[in-house]
Amino acid sequence: MSDPTARTGTAETRDEAFEELLEYLRAVRGFDFTGYKRPSLRRRVDKRMQAVGLETYAEYLDQLQVHQGEFTELFDTILINVTSFFRDPGVWDLVAGTLIPAVVASKAPDEPIRVWSAGTASGEEAYTVAMLLVEALGEDGFRTRVKIYATDVDDAAIAHARRGVYSGKDVEPVFQERRERFFERMGGAYVFRRDLRRVLIFGRHDLVQDAPISRTDLIVCRNTLMYLDSDTQKQVIVKFSFSLNDGGFLILGKSEMLFTRVRDFGVMDLKLRVFQRERTDRAGVATLFGDGEPAERAEELPRLAFDEAPAAQVMVRADGHLLAVNRRARDLLGVQASDVGRPLQDLEVSYRPIELRGPIEEAFSKGSFEIRDVVWRARDGSPLTLDVQVSRLAAAGGLEAVLVAFVDVSEAGQLQHDLETSNQELETAMEELQSTNEELETTNEELQSTNEELETTNEELQSTNEELETMNEELHSTNEELQTLNEELHERTTELAGLNTFMSSILASVRGAVVVLDDEMRVRVWNAQAYELWGLRDDEVQGSSLMGLDIGLPLDPVREQIRRTLGGDADQDTIEVDATNRRGRAVLVRITSSRLQPDAGRGVILLMEELDALA
User: Fold this and answer.
1) Which of 111, 380, 395, 543 counts the most CB atoms within 10 A of its CB?
2) What is the pTM of this model?
3) Per-residue pLDDT tens for 237-284?
4) Cβ–Cβ < 8 Å for 161, 148
5) Both 582 and 600 in a single domain?
6) Which helix (H) or strand (E) holds 584?
7) Minimal CA–CA distance to 199: which of 311, 115, 304?
């Protein structure tokens, strides 16, 4: 059986290694992922580790330290840039129909309008807001009044957004009319108009670490908070609250909500996750204190105690004597009506449930105050929680008294405690639900990203298949050409064989010996009569120099005549040489110039016959 302690230790070691990796990224590269949700962050890092064939975070940390280019691949894997123009059309209908008109109406005609697209990725949402503002303000008003700040932590995504170049597939959600108005065609791509593009300011910004952009009227931050843990989300929401003007709007992703994280926002449209910054109107705040109407006579002070008041009340004069006591005080504290007029210090109520002499003196000297959450057990033994309110009273003629009210807050305190507990449980449940919802959305984003990668891979495979099919057709065409060439070669080979047979027949039928030499006097043709004349076979002399053959033919006169013939001095000549063949007969040699092939050099033909045969 395995040791659960060992498994725990392994998990702890793995967590420590992962946190060490995150700290390295923060310290060396300036990317602080410590506020990101650990499950989704681990999945993205594990995916990259699988791609490079590593199993532990320590090994991957070594990979980052050695290969600087790996940072780019890791950030591209972690920062999922899934966005599009007019994503979730209902949100943009609300922006165009309600939010932008409200912002414009709250501004003077020449007052600037500032928009922040946080986590803008490749920029589609920033350009979407720009198109809607152009439609609302006109192009001149847009260029003179609007500033759109588009930020993201991913440098590569910001560089892509800054160029404003998108494919035909990217701009499919944009209506044809808007596409023609706001984009320029450049080959197969669409480029956002440069004169309008100047209004947008792109830059790298870390929502967790960097200060927010101030005095904004609209913030669009969709499907970015869901990657952050609860505490980090609260920090970012507080920054958004600081950034927005009073009455400004915040648009979150469809799985992101504020809940009770900050009190500065009201709900504009909960389904679409649109919130509005509450207005802080401090004008017109007035005090509600009045002078009051003084009592006419000091004797009226005891009647102010209200005998039927729900709270136990006792009234004490400035000389320390009990002035009045109501019915609830008699029942709760055991004070009797006969105790009126006695010194307070002689009564049990002076020190139970709380020491009263000091607070009464303080009330006479400094004014009214309250002592909260006094725990006391009643006469019947039931536990009570009381708020003791010590109030200074003044009557005509300078007569003063102190009214002490014992307010039973036991039930209210318990209800408050239960309410706080329920609120905490509800908030915890809501945050857990929100976290689960955001985790689901993150998974959906990852699945969408993976699906897009698979679609890209499928398109690449399709393209490769088409290329292979094209190559197959080319090979088939080449094969047909080779087959045609092979047939032509076969025909020419047959013709050449016929010509060779024909030539052999001609040479065999010639009575004299025929020897053909090339321009270097090498033997090319040696017929059968040459064999009969000199005694050497064709295969013995083929390719050999005639001047090197020992056949009894005087070479000097023949060599000289051959050279003159090759030089073009004579086309044909007959010489008689003093030679003896193998039969001892004289030989007559005729030398003729010839071209062996159209593109070859000159050659000579030697016709040799026995002189006796000629006679």
Assistant:
1) 395
2) 0.52
3) 888 988 999 999 999 987 776 654 456 788 888 888 899 998 754 333
4) no
5) yes
6) none
7) 115
